[in-house]
Amino acid sequence: MNERSSRILVNGNHAVAYGVKLAQAQVVPVYPITPQTPIVEKISEFQAAGEMVVELMTAESEHSAMSACITASLTGVRVFTATASQGLMLMHEMLHYASGARAPIVMFNVNRTIGSPWGFWPDQTDSLAQRDTGWIQYYCENGQESLDTVLQAYRVAEKVLLPAMVMHEAFYVSHALEGVEVPDQEVVDQYLPVFDPPHRLDPDIGESWGNTVGQEMFYRHRRDLGLAMESAIEVAEEADAEWRKLTGRSYGIVEQYRCEGAELVIATMGSMAGTARETVDNLRDAGLPVGLLKVKLFRPFPLAAVRRVLNGVPKVMVLDRNFAPGTGGFLHQELKAALYGLEQGPVVHGYLAGVGGTNVSPTVMADWVREAMATQPAAGPVWKG
Amino acid sequence: MGYQIKEEKVFNSGHAACPGCSEALAIRYVVNTLGPDTIGVVPPSCIAIISGPQPLSSMRMPVYQTTLESSAASATGIARALKAKGNDHTKVVVMAGDGGTYDIGFQSLSSAAERNEDFIYVCLDNEGYMNTGAQKSSSTPHLAYTASTPAGKLTPKKNLAEIMVAHRIPYVATATTGYPDDLARKVAKAKEMKGLRFILVLAPCLDGWGLADNAGPKVSRLAVETGVFPLYEVENGERYTLNYGSKGTPVVQYLSLQKRYRHLSQAQVEELQAEANLNWQRLQGKLS
Ligand SMILES: Cc1ncc(C[n+]2csc(CCOP(=O)(O)OP(=O)(O)O)c2C)c(N)n1
Ligand code: SF4
Ligand SMILES: [Mg+2]
After folding, report:
1. Which is nearest to B126 in space by CA: B67, B207, B192?
2. How many domains does chain B have?
3. Do A203 and B63 touch (CB under 8 A)?
4. What is the pLDDT of residues B7-24, one digit of tens each?
């Protein structure tokens, strides 16, 4: 593989920018927000150095940045933007608008706490609160995965015509330096076909978008959007398999780690998965049969994959670095719904862990595993450190 | 001014405007002057209704209907994408109401103006939120009745033309439907320019202003002749040209055709006359 890539030392955000450069995004509307800013700064540097030909639009808000992403995409060019936290909140109206318009935008969101009060800490509530906006969602745990996933996201989004957002967490991933393989342009060109949508805003075609529709048309439109979202599961699996063929790296839409004969499986997303893998290794060494389910693709929810992994497992401990007041952790809710009716399904502990960015060490996580193994789950979520 | 209107048939009959609507007339001169190699952006407003419900369209050109506050940002996305594709001939035009321009859409408009994005922005100003039942906008004039200012609006109309001039964009013009040749000429002039071009079109609304079905053109002309809405153009934030201004016609002639002013006392009519005089004087100070 080596002659077709180069290895560099970069932080997670810069790894994302390399992915965007390789995807050759043509229009990039931007608005700064910590801890996302290094992504678009790096893209600006690429542009200034002549390494990337791109229309950078310095919008006055994330709402406008997303509005411009939608129309640029509908005009038939590949677009990218990045945001976090309050920026994503401000975009909310346009997130629905983007999926409704079937615009295959790829956006990177660096997961950060939402105010008030103000904070800059890793917490996935910002993007998880957008789970119903019709965007494909991926959660990554390191810069390499983020770079690779940005490219996979373009391939999937442009095939099913839905927008995709890719996440990693504030600082733990966004600002952590690591060695990253950057594939050569020709590898990516082989992987990502030129974006040339048949339907677009073009006077030669004359098609319009967004006009008022009647109930019947609205119904059909929503149903089609749903079907496209469903089809994204298979397309995402295929995109990942294809990436493995070209680069040797793949992640799966979910990752099943040492689940053979597991009495308990830790289920989580994002950077917590790294800590959980270490915890699983430690506990396995100590003779405890424990495994990990990392949910990477969260929208569409990988229902079948999750049921396959957890069928016959007695217990699941969900760790959510996110919180929906009134229900609890997002993954906890979704997993319980996914497992409903499974004959040999597990009982599920839902732990709110690391909410607001608090540190969760492998030692602490191992203690929770022991506690979960020894107790019956509470009906609702349980607050942990 | 002796301008010969040249139209390409982009706008069609059969649209859903109220019969006698000035906005439909304005849209006709805008899109028929720009021609079919144009992409339109329209936010929620009467213009969206006039554009037509899916799958129908009153315009033979692509129209993207956006959200109320996003017109200028949406137009930017299209303009930048066209540039990225190497297309330097297709025009991008926003057609938005006053609510979508003076109020909720002002932030994105101001930003696009500051960046001097390459599109034409036409504000069809009917001085209120007509689509939602005639509530006030910041374009609603002083003392006018609306559903949300039943005793008359207490503050004056925002002077958006001057705010846009202050952005020093290549072209700002005011126009109105009672002067169709002037409107068409301004659109044709804007079409040949680059950067952000802003045209503010006063478009009397039958329902919202309380007008007789055939009163649109007359009210539009009176707005100019009384000095309430002078027609002028400004290039690069500096060069002012007056096209049509006050003929000294008393403002009361303009007001008395509109039910939204029927509650006014004599003193209030005089107040509005004094305001019109002052605004007219101020504008003249900029002309020389
Ligand atoms: C974010 C948002 N808020 C409110 C509305 C409801 N709305 C639709 S049209 C409109 C009024 C628009 O007024 P204006 O721009 O002056 O256009 P007109 O209806 O007068 O043609 C409003 C408030 C909306 N579509 N979007
Ligand atoms: S409400 Fe007024 S602006 Fe709207 S279509 Fe009717 S006359 Fe025209
Ligand atoms: Mg209006």
Report:
1. B207
2. 1
3. no
4. 999 999 999 999 999 999
Same domain (yes/no): A271, A242: no
Q: Among B52, B64, B111, whose Cβ lies nearest the Cβ of A201?
A: B64
Q: Does A61 touch chain B (CB under 8 A)?
A: yes
In a domain, B79, yes or no: yes
- B52 or B84: which leads in pLDDT: B84
> Number of residue pairs across A and B with CB atoms under 8 Å?
147
Please indicate, yes or no, whether residues A328 and A349 belong to a single structural domain of this protein.
yes
Closest ligand to residue B24's CA? 2
Ligand 1 site residues, Cβ closer than 6 angstroms? B 44-47, 68, 97-100, 126, 128-132, 137
Q: Which two tokens stand for residue B56?
A: 């129908």
**Phi, psi for B18 (deg, rounded to 5):** -60, 140
Say if B164 falls within a structural domain. yes
Sequence-distant (6+) residues with CB within 8 A of B285 are none
Q: What is the CATH number of the domain that holds A219?
A: 3.40.50.970
The count of domains in chain A is: 2
Flag if B53 and A211 touch (Cβ within 8 Å). Answer: yes
Instruction: Tell me which residues of chain A, numbers 188 to 217, contact chain B at a CB-CB cutoff of 8 Å.
Output: 201-203, 205-214, 217
SS3 content of chain B, % helix, strand, coil (to 5): 40, 15, 45
Q: Are A97 and B69 in contact (CB under 8 A)?
A: no
Q: Domain of B132: which CATH number?
A: 3.40.50.970
Say if residue A327 is in the same domain as residue A342.
yes
Nearest chain A residue to B74 by CA: give it: A68
Reply yes or no on whether the pLDDT at B288 is more than 80: no
* Structural domain boundaries, residue B71: 22-286
CATH, residue A365:
3.40.50.920
What are the angstrom distances between the C-alpha of A168 and each of A218, B191, B242?
Answer: 34, 45, 57
**What tokens appear for A164 in the block?**
């995709």
**Which two structure tokens, joined as six digits, stand for B212?**
């007789």
Q: What is the ipTM of this complex?
A: 0.96
List, in sequence order, every beta strand (DSSP E) within chain A.
5-11, 27-30, 55-58, 80-83, 106-111, 136-139, 164-169, 177-183, 254-257, 264-268, 290-295, 297-299, 315-320, 347-352, 382-383
Do A96 and A213 sit in the same domain of this protein?
yes
Q: Which domain holds residue A371?
A: 254-384
pLDDT tens-digit map of B175-212: 999 999 999 999 999 999 999 999 999 999 999 999 99
Pocket residues: Cβ below 6 A from ligand 2: B 17-18, 21, 23, 46, 126, 130, 205-208
Domain boundary among A220, A247, A274: A247
pLDDT given at position B1: 53
Say which range, A16-25, B35-44, B279-288, has the weakest mean pLDDT.
B279-288
Last residue in a domain, options A210, A232, A247: A247
The predicted-structure confidence for A176-200, as pLDDT tens digits, reads as follows 999 999 999 999 999 999 999 999 9
Q: Is any Cβ of chain A less than 8 angstroms from the Cβ of B8?
A: no
pTM of structure:
0.97
pLDDT above 70: residue A1: no
Same domain, A51 and A147: yes
